[in-house]
Amino acid sequence: MIFSAIQMKTGEDFDRNLQTLKKLLQKSGDFAVAPEVCLTGFAYDRFEEAAAFSQKALQELLPLSKNRLICYTQIEKRGDKFYNFAKVLYQEKLIYEQPKVRLFKFGGETDYFSSGSLEDIGLFEVNGLKVGLLICFELRFIEIWERLRGADIILVPAMWGKLRKRHFEQFTEALALMHQCFLIA
User: Fold this and answer.
1) Where are the alpha helices (DSSP H) in 40-117?
2) Per-domain residue ranges for the chain?
3) Among 82, 95, 91, 93, which Cα is nearest to 37's?
4) Mind listing the pLDDT tens digit for each residue in 98-146?
5) CATH code linked to domain 3-184
6) What is the DSSP string of 143-165?
7) Which among 19, 83, 137, 141 could disulfide-bond with 104, CB atoms 3.0 to 4.6 Å apart, if both were Cys?
8) Structure pTM?
């Protein structure tokens, strides 16, 4: 089994971001984790457009999940609220989704996004493997880690700042060690 943590620069051109992601996914392994909001960036001033584009992009990404699992996050509108939703695609289907529960206040996320609840976080199964998911800043919260007890693999789509790179490495290493599992971040 080959795990891929996709690295890409997200710009303001949503179509270009999607094309870049599609090219990188074609070279990826059996499990591919893309960065947080990789299709649009946080696009606070373009939320409606970003949410609509993300739904269209989801349909374009489904065929690429025929022989691999793909995980990423996207801006999504539900009712009159916007969320940062993780999507997991496999065998050309959306098999799991999870809203970001802990928003990063200093990045402005709490001003624009609504958060999910702890009950939204759980394990799902892929080919007999128990898989869990955390979105970026959620790495900092032990109560979220607890919800992933028993996972074989934990996926972490993230857009982590360079200034806190060492923190990201420490958290991901600790999470993998604590759960005795693989982690793709």
Assistant:
1) 47-61, 109-112
2) 3-184
3) 82
4) 999 999 998 889 999 999 999 999 999 999 999 999 999 999 898 998 9
5) 3.60.110.10
6) HHHHTTTT-SEEE------GGGH
7) 137
8) 0.95
